[in-house]
Amino acid sequence: MHDKSLTELRAALAAKECSAVELAQHFLGRIEAHQDLNAFVDVNPELTLAQAKAADALLHSGHAGPLAGIPLAHKDVFVTRGWRSTAGSKMLANYVSPFDATVVERLERAGMVCLGKTNMDEFAMGSSNENSHFGAVKNPWDTKAVPGGSSGGSAAAVAARLAPAATGTDTGGSIRQPASFTGVTGIKPTYGRVSRYGMIAFASSLDQGGPFAHSATDCALLLNAMGGFDERDSTSLTHAHEDYTRFIGQKWGNGGDNSGSQGAGKPLAGLRIGLPKEYFGAGLADDVRAAIDAALKTYESLGASLVEVTLPKTELSIPVYYVIAPAEASSNLSRFDGVRFGHRAAEYRDLLDMYKKSRAEGFGPEVKRRILVGTYVLSHGYYDAYYLQAQRIRRIIAQDFQEAFRQCDVIMGPVAPSVAWDLGAKGDDPLQMYLADIYTLSTSLAGLPGMSVPCGFGAGANAQRPVGLQIVGNYFNEARMLQVADAFQRATDWHRKAPAGVSNEPPHSLRSSPPGGAHASLEAARREA
């Protein structure tokens, strides 16, 4: 069961091959058996099985939607009633929320069953999941390697088949990068598409929730349930709700996109793929470049054409991000003072001493580093020189993307300059860790949708470490972006490969699927929705 897609699991539930309770028990057993990965920080079987029983009742009623009864895991940045909501920090190590985040609420309303809360970099600050108060998550493909961050626990859980899907958040690449490092599919929607209500804030103008799953089809189904306007979130967009699966399986050009005669009859004939020259220069590892080049050749075989574009401010995205994000973090984390909730020092002399000791004990090194940077750039005399200047360049970065989209329909390139690095390899050099986000930060700064799809593996000693292809769309273009990703996944099997030890079959094997696989049951799922 753990090798099936969401639509295959839903078909199994509808055919009564298993119940939601049995499915939940199966995945809870896998979580128990793979505790060494440290992917989960809180599991509550009693709550999980209660939700599964409710899902079985919904399925029995005959009014269940396409996600009813399917288990998933939540990144521990989403507050969740009944489970601890820690944001990977000692500051909130024992916090249990009295309410659900909108994302949690909507997925539960869709009938999905929560398996537990996944490990993450503290307050979503990190690129390796080594900054968690609860210890580092291990990459299931190579347990000596990081899984990426900050949503590393969610990505590792999906990759290891501990959950068929999971939620994550992406501030500067924290869905796309761990998806790349663990060989799963992950999508960051347009900023404001998914409600931030109940998401523990890091950088409010950048944070965006999104799903992890094995395929673009599965991600589209999850985004259908997660997305939409939320009046409780001041950053939520009033854009009309849409079906993100509506272009899955269709040829490019249906619905008014540009299409040409070259390659006519092929599924992506007329698609123009923009390749930013800044993404393919010095610093990109040879094995990552080889995997990306092979993926692009596949796209050409599907009828797409490649167009060179330029994003000239790409190299400035790192300093801009690491001014804006820490500034917003400094403001958001000021609420954690040991008074209202969260960690409080056991001994202190007075109120000021309590603030100092509680925050010193409750926050880890990376969080403290970013608070200090953020407080500095917001201070009198530096606000204009740093923060305002960074905001100006942010606007230029967004304009660069719009110029590029005049020449292409989607932008593609690597997610990260290398495959996953070894645990501890960059712990003493935060700057090297920050540089690993060079290809994802600009998309987040512009508020654009982006995703990672598995497209190969590294070489030599890194032959078991996955590579992800990044696909970036224009604003509100998620459905077309998912269509482009799905076409690639119909032509390749990278998204079906599993790490050794998590399947009954050898690593890099293609597990069997019923005729048509996930795609054959998509139409049935649409009819149920």
From TrEMBL:
Claim: Ligase is one of the keywords in the record: yes
This protein's record includes keyword 4Fe-4S: no
Signal peptide extent: none
Residues annotated as domain Amidase: 22-482
Active site residues of this protein: K75, S150, S174
Record field: catalytic activity: L-glutamyl-tRNA(Gln) + L-glutamine + ATP + H2O = L-glutaminyl-tRNA(Gln) + L-glutamate + ADP + phosphate + H(+)
EC number: 6.3.5.7
Family matches, as HAMAP family: GatA
Function comment: Allows the formation of correctly charged Gln-tRNA(Gln) through the transamidation of misacylated Glu-tRNA(Gln) in organisms which lack glutaminyl-tRNA synthetase. The reaction takes place in the presence of glutamine and ATP through an activated gamma-phospho-Glu-tRNA(Gln).
Sequence similarity: Belongs to the amidase family. GatA subfamily.
Name of the featured protein: Glutamyl-tRNA(Gln) amidotransferase subunit A
Native source organism of the sequence: Paraburkholderia silvatlantica
